[in-house]
Amino acid sequence: MAKRVAVIDIGSNSVRMVIYEKTSRFAFHLLYESKSKVRLSQNAYQNNSNLQQDAMERTFFALADFVNIISSFKARKTLCVATSALRDAPNKYDFIKRIRDELKLNIKVIDGEREAYLGGIACANLLPNQNNALTIDVGGGSTEFAYIDNKNVTDTISIDLGTVRLKELFFDNNDINGAKKYIDEKLEVLNDIDASKLIGIGGTFRAIITAIMKQKSFPLRKIHAYESKSDEFETFLKAVLNADEEELCKLNIKENRFDIIKPGSLILQRVIKKLNINELIASGVGVREGVYLSDLLRTSKDKLPANYNTSVRHILDAHVSDKEYSNNLNKLSKELFDILQDKFNLDAKYRRDLAIAAKLYPSGGSIHQFAQNRHSYYLIQSSLEYGFTQKQMVLISTLVRYAKRKLPSNVHIEKYKVLLPDTKTLNTLSYILTLSIYLLNHRPRNIDFRCSLEGNKLIIDSKNRMYLAKEDIENLKALEDLEIVFN
Predict the structure, then answer these.
(1) Which of 12, 327, 365, 384 could form a disulfide with 141 if both were Cys (CB 3.0 to 4.6 A apart)?
(2) pLDDT under 50: residue ranges of the chain
C-alpha cells in the first residue's frame, strides 16, 4: 500500500478530504484534512432528487482544489467515494463523467449498507472495544447504522432519512409532526436491534457533542471517545429543538448549521427513545477512516491485529529512536506495578495505562531533550486517541508530564478531575513510572537487576552499583510505607 493515501468523501452536505501517512505496516496518522460545505443535495429532494447546477458547480470546484492539494502532498493513491446525494440522483452520471474527464478523479458511488459498514469498521478498530453498540451516521440524505460487538460489524442498515431531506420535505413547511411520523416509520427497520450504546458518527453528532463540551467547559479539546449519558444528551437535544437562532448561538451551535441542526437533533432524539439508549459515545472517525482501513486491512478481514494500537505504534515510529530503552521501561513499569499492586490497592485496569506511559515517555526527546516531558505530554495528548478512552488519554499524558518531577500538581488535578483517577492512585502510578526511569538510569541493554517486596521494603538486587539510580531515588519523595533498599 502507498505510504500516503488520500480519501475523499462526497456527502450530501459536505465534501471532505483527508491524507493519511503510514509509518509502519498498520501504523498511520492524519497528515492533512480539508472540507467544504458544498450542499450538493441542496434543493434536490424538491426536484425528484436531481442534483442542481449551482450545487454541482460548488462541488466541482472544491474537488478541483482537493486534487491540487493531494498532488502537493505527493499522495500515491486517491480513494474517492460518494454517498446519498449521488446515490439518489438520476443525473449523477453526467456529474461523475465530468469529474473523471476534467479532474482525472474516479468517484465510486457506494450503497447505503457499504457506507454503514465503513463507518462501523472505523469505530470497531479506532474506538476502545465496544460491545452491544450501534453506530449512527446522520447525513444530509440518509442515516446509516451498524452493530458492533467485540470488533465484529453486523446488521448494516441505511435508510432514506437525513438532515437536508427532512429540512426540505418537512421543516421548510413547518410540518414537525409530519417529520416525526416520517422518522418513526423509517426507524421500524431497527425493531430487532438491541443495543445499549449509541456511537455517533458525522457532522450532526459532532456538532452537538462539541456544543455540550463547551457548555460544560470540558477540559479536553477533542471529541473522539467522549462519553455522554442519555439524559444529558436528550436534555440538550430538547433545548436545540425549542431554540430560536439567538438561543442556538448561546447553545454553541455554529451558524452554518442552523438550518439542519434541528432535523438532525430530531432524528437522534427518536432513535434514542426507540432503542432506550443508556450511553452515547462520540466518534471522531467515520466513513473516510473506514475507506482507508478497508484498503489497509484488506488481507486482515478489516481488523487490526489483536493487542495492536495504531496510535501507540505511530508515536513510537515517529518519535522514539531508542526502542530498547522504551521496551525496558515498559517491562519494568509492569513488573513494579505487579509487585506493588496489592500493597497500594491498585486497580488492574491501570497496568496497561502505566505501561504505555512508560513506553512513550521518551517521545518528546525527539523535539527537544531539555523539554522532553512537556513535549511528550503534548504529543501524547494530541496523538494518542485511537483505541483509548478519554480518561486513558489524560492519565497516560499526565503520568509522562510529571515523570522525574514532583507528583502531579493540584492545579493539573483540579483541571482534569473528571477524567483522572483519585489522587492516591494517580500519585502511586506517577511514583512507579519515575522509579522505573531512575532504576534504568544506567541504560542496560537488558534489565540487570531484580525487584521484590519484603514487608514495606522494595528490594533491588543488582551486581551493578547503580550509583545514578541511588542518587536520584534519594531525592524522590517516597510513598508512604515504602522504602527502597539496594542489595
Answers:
(1) 12
(2) none
